[in-house]
Amino acid sequence: MRDWLWLIPALPFAGFLVLALAGFRMPRRAIATVAVAAVALAAIVAIVAAAWFIAAPPTGHAWTQTVWQWFAVAGFAPTIGFRFDALALVMAVVVAVVALLIHVYASASMDKEEGYARFFAYMNLFVASMLTLLLADNLLLLYLGWEGVGLCSYLLIGFWYEDEANGRAAQKAFIVTRIGDVALAVAIFLLFTRLGTLDLAQIGVLAPQTWTRGDGAVVAAAFLLLGGAVGKSAQLPLQTWLPDAMAGPTPVSALIHAATMVTAGVYLIARMHAIFELAPAAELAVAAIGAATLLLAGVSALYQRDIKRVLAYSTISQIGYMFLALGVGAWSAAILHFMTHAFFKSLLFLAAGVVIDALGHEHDIYRMGGLRRALPTAFWTFLIGGASLAGVPIVTAGFYSKDWILSEEWTAGRGGHWLWAAGLVGALLTSLYIFRVFFLVFFGAQQRAPVIDRRARIHVPLVILAALSVVGGLVQVPRTLGYLPLFARFVQTALPAGREAGVGLEAGLELVAAVAALGGIVIAWALYLGHPGIVAALGRAPLAARLARYWSSGWGFDAIYDRLVVRPYRWLARVDQGDVLDEPYRGIAVAARGLNHALSRSENGKLRWYAMGLAGGTAIIVALVLFA
Amino acid sequence: MTSVFYVAGAVALASTLLVITRASAVHALLYLIVSLLSIAIIFYQVGAPFVAALEVIIYAGAIMVIFVFVLMMLNLGPRAVAQEHAWLRPRMWIGPGALAAILAAEVIYTLATTERADTAAALVAPKQVGQSLFGAYFIGAELASLLLLAGLVGALHLARAAEKGEA
Amino acid sequence: MVPTDVALALAGLLFMLGVVGVLARRNVIFILMSIEIMLNAAGLAFVVAGARWHQADGQVMFLFILAMAAAEVSVGLALVLRLYRQWSTLDADVPSSMRG
User: Fold this and answer.
1) Fewest Cβ atoms closer than 10 Å to its Cβ: which of A184, A537, C17, C67?
2) What is the pLDDT of residues A585-623, one digit of tens each?
3) Domains of chain B from N-terminus onward
4) A–C: how many Cβ contacts below 8 A?
C-alpha cells in the first residue's frame, strides 16, 4: 500500500493534464467523467490506504514513499516523496472525499457554463496541489503544493474573467496570500540554513536538539511560518482577500475557500508543531490572532447581505477557532475541527449555491425568503449545516469539535480563560449570524419564485455532507457523554497530546457552550422572525448605522490597507516610471529612431545625390589605399 | 613633337571645361566634339593611330551625333536655356568642385611619386591591335558585340514604348 | 616621347571635370555628356599606358570602352526620351520617388 501513495496526488494531476490538453474537444459528459473519476480514484486510494494504516499501523506510525530525487546541489537533495501519517491521513481523506462530492455537484451546477473543461482542469489541478501539500515529506514539496493551490485559487476566482471585478478579486487574493508566501519562503530558508534539512520528520527531531526554548532563531522561524499560515488561511491581518474571493463560482468557494486551501495554514502550523513548541511567543501570537480573528469575522458576518460573504466571514471565523486551538497546544482539537468544518462549511456553501441558482444568481438574503417548502433539500441540509456550525449539542459534529477546543482553552495556562471567553462569545455570534441567514432565506414571504433543480448530482452530495455533518464528530466523544477518544488516540501518533479536563469541568463548560449556541438561535429567531421591528428600530440610530457600515466592510481593513499600502505603492510606481535605470533602455529606442530619421533623409531618390555618394566614397577609398 | 601633345592637351582641358559650364546643350555638345578631336590628336602623338581614327569616326562621329539627334528631337528652345541659367548658380559648384579637387590631388600625388617614363618611340600598328583583339582578347570582342546587341534591343524597346506612350 | 605621367595626369584632370559635370548639372543630357567625358578620359589613360609599354592591350581596351559607351549612350538617351515624355522635364531631381 505504501507504494501506491503517489497515486493520491498523481491521479487528479493526470485528470488535469487530460482536460488541459484535450478538454476543449471533449463533450461535457466526458469532461465531467474524467474530472470526477480522477478525484474519485484518488479518494478511493486514500480511503483504502487509511483503512490499511489504521488496521496495521507501521513502525514509526508513518509510511514514506520516495518517488524520485528532485535535484541535488551541493549536498541539498530534496526528493519528491510522500509521507502518510495520522495527520496527513485525516486531512488527505477529508480533502479527497469533500472534493469528490463537490466535483459531482459542480458537474451539474456548472453545466451551462462556457469553459467547462477549463473549470474542471483547474479544479483537478487544485486537488492535486492540495494533496501534494498534505502528503509532502519535505518543506520544498510542500511549498510547491502551497504555490499550486494559490495559483489555482487565482485561476478559479477569476474564472469568469470577462468581468473585470472578478479579475481584481483574483489579483487581490493572489497578492495578499503572496505576502504570506514570502514569509513562508524565508522561514524555509531559515530552517534550511540552521538545520540543514527540509525533511519534515528530520526537522521534528533536529529542532529540539538544535534550539532551546525561546531561542531567537526558532522564534523567528515560527513567526515567519505563522506569517505564511496567516496569509493562506485568511487570518488577521491578511484576511481581506477571502470575502472578495466569493466572486468565483460556488463550488470553488465550497472547495477552496471553505474546506481545503484555507486550512493549509492550519496544516502547516500543526506539521511544524515542533518549531512552535520551542517558541512560546509565537504560540501566544497564534492563539491571539485566532481569537481576534474569530471575533472580528463573527461580527462582520452578522452584517453581510450577500449570503456567500456571510459564509466567507464564517470561514475566517472558524479558522480562527482552529488557530485558537493550535495556539494553546490543542493540535488534535484543531484538526478535528478542520474535519467537521470541512463537512459543514462545504455543505453550507453548496446549499447556498442551490438557493442562489434557484433564484437566478441572486445573492442578497434580503431578497430571498420563504424557500422552505420550495427547496426542501436545501432547507434541511442548510439547517443541519448551520446547526453543526453553531455547535448544537450532541446531534451535530460541530459540537464535538468546538467543545473540545473550548475545553482545551479553559485548561490552558496564561490567559486561557480569556481565550475561552473569546471562543464562547464567538460561538454565540456564530449561531446568531448563521441562523439569521437561515431564517431570512427559508422563512417569511417568498419574494421570488425559485427554479427547482431536481438532478441527483445536486442533491446527493448535499445529503451525504449533511450526514457527515451529523456523525462526523462521533469519533471524539468526550467523557461526559461516554468516553470515545478515537480521534485523539489516533492523531496522537503524529501530534502531541492535549490536556484533558476532569468530567465535572467538562460538563460545566459544555453546558455554557450549549447555552451560547442555543441562545444564539433563540435570539436570531426573535430578531428576524418573531419581532423584526427591533432590528429596524436599532438600525435607525445614526451611530448604529455607522457601526453597521464599519462592521459590514470587515472593520475597515480594506480602506486602511488601501491608504497605507496600495496608494503609496502606486504613487511610487508612477513616480519611478522614468528613473535612471530606465533611461538607457529608452535611450536605445530614441537613438535608433533618431538614426533612422537621419539615415532616411540620405535616401532622397535624387540621382545626383547618389552620384555624389559614389564620388565621395571613391575619394575615401583611394585615400585609404594610398595613405594607409 | 611633344609640343603638339601639350597644345592638344590644353585644348582638350579648356573645351571640356566649357562643356560642363554651358547653358545651351547644343553648344556644350559642340565643345565636346572639339574635346574629342583633341584627344584623337593626342592618341596619334602617343603612337596609336588606330584608336585615333576610331575616336574620330565612332566617338565623335557616331555617339555625339546620336546626342545631336536626341537634342533635336527634344526641341528644347530658349526656355530650356533660361532654366539652365537658373540652375547654374556658383553655389552649385562648391561641393562637386571640392570633391573633384580631392580626387585630382590624389591622382597627381600618385603620379608624382612614380618614376618618370616616356612612351615608346615606335607606334603600335593597327595590325598589331587586330592580332591582339582577335587573338588573346577574342572573347572580349565577342562580348562587346553581345553588349551592342543588348544595347540595340534595349534602346529599341524603350524608344518604341516611348512613342506609343505605354509603360 | 610623350611623358607618361603628364598624359596620365591629363586623363585624371579630364576625368575630374567629368565628375564635376555629373554632380553639378541638373539636366540629364549634360549628365550623360559628362559621363562620356569620363569614359573618354579613362580610355585616354588606357591608351597612354599601352603605348608606354608598346603593347596593343591599351588600344584593345579602348575599343571595348568605345563599344560600351556606344551601347550605354543609346540606351541612356532612350531613357532620357522616356523621362521627357513622362515628366515633361529634363531635371534629374524630379524622378525621386524611390526615397526612404
Assistant:
1) A537
2) 888 999 999 999 998 888 888 888 888 899 899 889 988
3) 2-136 (1.20.120.1200)
4) 34
